[in-house]
Amino acid sequence: MNDSTGKPPEEDPWGFAASKPKPRAVAEAGDDPFGAFARPAQRASSEGEPQVEAAGQRLSGVEGSKHGHHLRDRAFSLTVALSTVFALGFIAEIVAASRFIHLTGLQGLVIIYPLGGLGLILVAFAQVTWIDRIDRQKAFVRVALGYGVVFIIALVLIANPSERLSVIGTGLACILAEQMNFLLPLIVWAMLGDLFNAAESRSVFPWVITWRYAGQFVGLVIASFAPLLLTQLDIPLYTLLIACPIGLIALAIFLPRSLKGRALNQSHGEQENIQESVKSAWDFVGGVKAFRAIFITSSLVFVAGSALEGTFLSQSADWAKGSEAKVEILYGSTLLFVFIICWILQRSAVTKTMEKLDIPGSLALLPIATLIGGVIIVAGVQVDLLGVMLIGIVAWRVPWWSIDDVARRAAMALVPDQRRARVSFIVDLVPYGIGLITAGGILGIARAFDAPIIAPALAAVFALAAIPASRVAIRSWADALLSPHLKRRKRLAER
């Protein structure tokens, strides 16, 4: 990507994302999820300093050096926050979803999915108005404290002897879990983007991602195996949810103190209402054809994936025959199995795949995998074998949690600082909200006709429709990199 200013190519800090006609291996990329986009261009550094390469590349000599340890020290508090958020989010998602499907069956999902999707979209639009205008740690504190308080309310309702109030509290916990797993990580990643320049992030982000995986693993293990102990002790399974408000409030107190004196984003000073802020973010998405195609692809894929997830949960509840513990163990163990596969792929295949396919090609894998998952679940429902349906869920979840997630982070790195968080909300969050709302309707149709096979069949249709949209993103990616919307420069010198 050449600048009109006449800079030599090696000075271009975003050359790592340019489309490559012939894939080129990156030496010693290891398990670095951003290694796929490195280029060999370098610039000289002062004697005695680690050699600094163009943004998106490795800092030569940083790995294992004092400077590398310094980068990790700077990232430590945010890494702990990210890991904790994912641990709490996974506990909340598995415990709340299992309890809700146990109490209400498919009928409950028909109601809670649209409510959850609408809640995600409304909260995302509300945060779009101020997320790029105020200090990000203030945003995190407000959201974490708010969720912590609402979780306490949900727990009070769940523990109520009234079955109706208990169902309402469980549904509220489901909605909170969805938001925790999406909104809070986006804010933390935005703070990490503020704290490190592009070359530094190339070195420290793989370490951050490793600890994010650790948090996910801890949450999945606790949610999957705690029922074995709690049922023996005659303790309600929802007791695990107490960890969520405690952890969120602790993070809201801990994070500002640990980040004291750190330079994060500064307000751009513009006072915008929600309409102006949403328009600003959407102008970016609408103005870059590749990002518009990614948005459409994501919306269609998440409709399909949410419908598949709902089908699997409802069939799991039927299989468990009234046992909440069985539903939670099955659902948690399934996601734990998915996580282990993702970790193996992260260590062995994600970087090589992204080297070959680049960002848009990597994002195009999820629609294909979701289509395959839909076909498998259709077969599983037809023969009434939960094990077959489990394979379908794995087929959809694995690429979503692995290569698709890494490719999205790489794509968001190209967005200017002042718009990155709000564009991320639009591109990452809104499609998932649309997916939940539409999937609720699909599950409602399946329930109305008493034909569970309808939901995965329609999911396969939506996944199939996402494939042409993903191809548009691939074809338009090279042109998108030349768009003035994506021209962003960040100093390589350490802040």
TrEMBL record:
Keywords, A to Z, come to: Membrane, Transmembrane, Transmembrane helix
Origin organism is: freshwater metagenome
Protein's name in the database: Unannotated protein
Decide whether keyword DNA-binding is in the record: no
Read off the InterPro entries from this record.
Answer: MFS_trans_sf
Q: Where is this region: Disordered?
A: 1-66
Transmembrane feature ranges:
75-97, 109-128, 140-159, 165-192, 204-229, 235-255, 290-308, 328-345, 357-379, 385-403, 423-447, 453-474
